[in-house]
Design brief:
Blueprint: E1 5-6, H1 17-23, H2 39-59, E2 66-69, H3 72-86, E3 93-97, H4 102-113, E4 117-121, H5 131-137, E5 142-146, H6 160-169, E6 173-177, H7 189-192, E7 196-200, E8 211-215, H8 241-259, H9 261-281, E9 285-288, E10 298-303, H10 308-317, E11 320-321, H11 337-341, H12 346-349, E12 352-356, H13 363-382, H14 385-389
Parallel strand pairs: 1-11, 3-4, 3-5, 5-6, 6-7
Antiparallel strand pairs: 2-8, 7-8, 9-10, 10-12
Bound molecules: pyridoxal-5'-phosphate.
């Protein structure tokens, strides 16, 4: 296989070797079903509880408040449907933003069909949720606000603490999808005033198919998966033991890495180099997302007069993996709902390209992109009638 330059780390990350090592015994030797009453099972159960403590510490929660799930999608579904179904006597109104991940948006669209009323808040040109609109949209029958911590496509960081305060003062539950925030910025559920928070292992060097939902003690929620008495009756199903152990280790490592200025500076420096290089070498490029309030691994741009997808194909020839938006949108002809919510016209939104770096990204990889991309763009632009007329 050709050397891969992987710059699609908001879609998934390479597992950290230390995470993999921590998991292996639980795929091989310690295979007992943790629900067993014999010692062999209890040993496994004990390790699950240790992993729960690690996840809790990472979020500044208590272990009691952590439920393991199959990932970000399930955590979002659980939080939203769980609150909706448990609190429908109080009301049927839910508030969210127009730039959420599809795991949140489509769950809410499903609830809309079930008779819930959803308000989709607008965002400004950087993707920051309109706080005044949020305040105005809260009603007597509002039961939940769900707004993401960091956006997966453009990287914008939302004012979660402020939104949490508003939710609390109005006695409304607050959920945040922190899947893109975990491992990139500090998460403290106490400081943020959140009641529910989703994370997913594979977005921060953990394994795929494991995640967690923080549910603050006292929150009224219904399970979504029914079955056995796992996870204190909140989430049925035999535990993904190796995944849980891996998630615990990934949280531990993420906590260390967040304090490691070397890792932080390297990633930021490479992202800045990529951004600066692209703007210098390619005319008519727009950078999306907030200039400062942005996770520092994400660069989303619109290259005018071409389609993001056609650039992706050119990059793919060179072994460079990037994205034209979210993994879930690719394959559809509609431009990203996030970019449209920023107010970008369709023609420009179609030219979007997302590079997302990891702690493993190397300078040569960025240099290679800067070497390949300008030529690829020029080639495609030469074929575009719009480029010659500069119509947009
Ligand atoms: C990836 C992602 C999800 C979905 O997580 P999975 O573990 O892949 O199901 C949800 N929200 C955001 C913001 C994401 O980036």
């Amino acid at each position: 296989m050709k050397k891969i330059i992987y710059l699609d780390n908001n879609a998934t990350t390479r597992i950290d070797k230390r995470v993999l090592q921590s998991m292996l015994p639980y795929l091989e030797e310690y295979y007992a079903n943790p629900s067993g009453i014999y010692y062999f099972a209890q040993e496994v159960k004990k390790e699950i509880e240790k992993a729960r403590e690690k996840v809790a510490k990472f979020l500044n929660a208590t272990p009691f408040e952590i439920i393991f799930t199959s990932g970000g999608t399930e955590s979002d579904n659980f939080a939203i449907k769980g609150i909706a179904f448990a609190n429908r006597e109080k009301g049927k109104h839910i508030i969210t933003s127009s730039i959420e991940h599809h795991a949140v948006l489509n769950t809410l669209k499903y609830l809309e069909k079930q008779g819930f009323e959803i308000t989709f808040l607008p965002v400004d040109k950087y993707g920051i949720v309109d706080i005044d609109a949020l305040k105005e949209s809260i009603r007597k029958d509002t039961i939940l606000i769900s707004i993401m911590y960091a956006n997966n496509e453009i990287g914008t960081i939302e004012p979660i603490k402020e939104i949490g305060e508003i939710a609390r003062n109005n006695n409304v539950y607050f959920h945040t999808d922190a899947v893109q925030a975990a491992g990139k910025i500090k998460i403290d559920v106490k400081e943020l005033n959140v009641d529910l928070l989703s994370i997913s292992g594979h977005k921060f060097y953990g394994p795929k198919g494991i995640g967690a939902l923080f549910i603050r003690k006292g929150v009224k929620i219904e399970p979504v998966l029914h079955g056995g008495h796992h996870e204190r009756n909140q989430r049925a199903g035999t535990e993904n033991v190796a995944g849980i152990i891996g998630l615990g280790r990934a949280c531990e490592i993420a906590e260390e890495d967040l304090k490691n200025t070397e890792i932080k500076n390297k990633k930021k420096k490479l992202k800045d180099k990529l951004e600066k290089g692209i703007l210098e070498k390619i005319p008519e490029v727009i950078v999306n997302g907030h200039p400062e309030k942005r996770i520092d691994n994400t660069l989303n741009i619109c290259i005018k007069y071409i389609e993001g997808e056609s650039i992706l194909i050119q990059l793919d020839f060179e072994g460079i993996c990037a994205s034209s938006g979210s993994a879930c949108t690719s394959g559809s002809l509609e431009p990203s709902h996030v970019l449209l919510a920023l107010g970008l016209p369709h023609e420009i939104a179609h030219g979007s390209l997302r590079f997302s770096l990891s702690k493993y990204t190397e300078e040569e990889e960025i240099d290679k992109v800067l070497e390949v991309l300008p030529g690829a763009v020029q080639k495609l632009r030469n074929l575009s009638p719009f480029w010659k007329e500069k119509k947009i």
